[in-house]
Specification:
The chain has 4 helices and 5 strands; from the N terminus they run βαβαβαββα. The longest helix has 13 residues. It has one domain: Rossmann fold, CATH 3.40.50. 36% of the residues lie in helices and 21% in strands. It is of the alpha/beta class. The protein has a 5-stranded parallel beta sheet with strand order 2-1-3-4-5, sandwiched between helices.
Length: 121
Amino acid sequence: MTTALVVDDHPSFRREAKAMLEAAGFEVVGEAADGRSALAMAGSLDPDMVLLDIGLPDVEGFEVARRLGVFVRPPTVVLTSSRDASAYGDKLPAPGAIGFVPKDELSVERLAALLRRAELP
């Protein structure tokens, strides 16, 4: 089973994302509301995948993705945001992340397509 960490500062989005991931067969091992917590949890929980909001209150998601990328066993990172990709200009694609999905387009199918490309089981 693929393990996941959901990182977003909105509890309602974390609940929705967790439910979607679990329905798709993921084991959600944790939820974080900010970048510092996400990094600490990823270090201790060792998730296979991190669904990561870009707009976090402390450390921007781009920086969190970059830091996750230097872990001994880095998780596969999928960035998300309530904003469209065009709002981020040349920051996407982001180092440490396999892709970006706007929150209003987030679905099991979109995640599965990104994960297949990254060859995550």
